[in-house]
TrEMBL record:
Main location: membrane
Protein name from the UniProt record: ABC transporter ATP-binding protein
Span of domain ABC transmembrane type-1: 53-335
Transmembrane segments: 51-74, 86-107, 161-183, 189-208, 276-297, 309-330
Membrane association type: Multi-pass membrane protein
Amino acid sequence: MQPEAAEELSGLPRATTQDEGAPALPRTGLGASLAEIVRISAQAAPGMMTVHAFVVVVQGLAPVASAWAMKLLVDGIPDPAVAPAALAWRVGLFGALAVATAGLPHLSQYLGDCLGRAFAVRAAADLFSATLRFAGLARFEDPGVLDRLRLGQQAADAGQTLVTGGFMAVQSMISLIGFAAALWVVSPVMTLVAAVAAVPGLVVQVRLSRRRNAMMMHMSPHERRQIFYGGLLADGQAAKEIRLFGIGGWLRDRLLGELTLVNEERRRMDGRELRAEGLLGALGAVVSAGGLAWATFAARAGALSVGDVSMFAVAVASTFGGAATLISTASRVYSGLLMFGHHVAIVRAAPDLPVPAVPTPVRPLAGGLELHDVWFRYSPDHPWILRGVSLRIPHGATVGVVGANGAGKSTLVKLLLRFYDPQQGSITWDGVDLRDMDPAALRERISGVFQDHMTYDLTARENVGLGSLDALQDLDRIRVAARRAGIDDVLSALPRGYETQLSRMFTSEADKEDPETGVVLSGGQWQRTALARAFLRADRDLMILDEPSSGLDPESEADVHSRMRAHRAGRTSLLISHRLNTVRDADLIVVLRDGVVAEQGTHDQLMAAGGTYAHLFRLQSAGYTDAAGGAALTVEGSR
Ligand SMILES: Nc1ncnc2c1ncn2[C@@H]1O[C@H](COP(=O)(O)OP(=O)(O)OP(=O)(O)O)[C@@H](O)[C@H]1O
């Protein structure tokens, strides 16, 4: 029954209906970003952060103190009341402050870099731990989330800039307040003029930062496409098709198109910033020059001392320079905070699949798995893929699932692994709804091979061992699994046996000519390796095999299936295959069509029923028989 219809009719079973797709990422403000940055910095290197904060305060005060020492020195030169010893002390003070002013920035830079690197590591750890908490797949298929993930990653990598920028802003602020106070002593009016002149800069920089952040978000899909095209053009696997179909130039042009678009947008943004900063700089220079003219004539009239003028000149220049530095640093920090908002959104994202506070433990399968009127679509914009599937996978039985391309077989597998939750109906494990379980605990009890299995650029041992991390170093167990998958002979005969890299990526330029550096397996060999990975955790309660032999030659396929049959005996498994001879001995065969179970039964029952399965089985058998007949005829004819 349609979920909408079920909703309207009271009394009809409706297990649960949940919002479609994972919950959206949270909206985050600047405060949240700032709090997160302080937290990460404090956790990453607490001692260094304290020392850096102290150095920054001293560094911020040093230029103001230097200017004041200079004023004392200049005023003391012509003053007979100042003894030579006192004058020497003033020179010494000025010199000491000059040394501090010259040396501290290097120490500050070093501390900032160290802190920034520690920050980047911690931020990356938080980000990737958060992505690992995404138990389902929906977020990885949402372009908006992928954009934010990429920008959040960039923000984490740019931690050094963010941390040093933050400290620099604090330091500029301290210097600015110091110089403004010094300026106030000489001329309160000039201080107010300088403060008013700084306001437009602040406003403009904040607006520019917002615009830059919006531009980066807007450009993100173009950058993702650019990375995709670049990846294809540099990928050894894609090289075959690119050359066969001659599409290299087309891909390159698309890459350049995206790159040009992104560059043009960035250039426009840089131009805006250039114009705004140029105008603000000119405004500052005009106010400084006016102030200096006033101070010069005030000194002539005897209202100011020469030391006051020197102090005034330094204070005006430093106030404007400091304000400009503060504004541009603050704007960089502001941009960084906006960018870091993407990191915070990922790290603070609510679970994508609802898990109860106290999940039901996943016990060893005793009765079976059951789908109850399961309806599923990938999102409200997509069509229904499963439209009320009810099916039982009894404990200890092998269930074969067949159906045309796109019938929803792999989707069924993804639901059994709780990569998504059905919108309507439920899936139970010994009567317990999968939604009441922790997805990780559920998957601990399952093994399997996906149709699009992974090929890891790692050693042969690791490629199999990843199936069960506790066996990663246990070569005996790994070899037993590989033997079951019929790939042990191949892997042990590799140049370095199981320690051979199954990779096209050379470990270094120096050893790339070494034939033992890495080997390339064939498609079928990779498939058997993936099968070995699944067999390594064969002690689990459910084995899911989605097209495990599609790339194998007939002899290998027969061999693999006889091994799998031996393994499956008495165990619960789900086998998906288009080659019907490989599922014929399953305890139950299910035909999926139009989103529902169209037929189910044993091979003999389905053949007797004469439906879709029987039709397809006869079609495939006839193909083999004709081929065999054809081959026989050819042999006959050639004699
Ligand atoms: N992540 C996804 N987002 C949106 N639609 C999807 C997604 N994955 C699969 N589909 C769609 O769901 C339908 C069922 O796909 P599924 O992979 O389950 O079919 P299948 O029966 O395994 O097909 P095949 O025999 O070709 O492997 C297809 O129409 C496919 O386009």
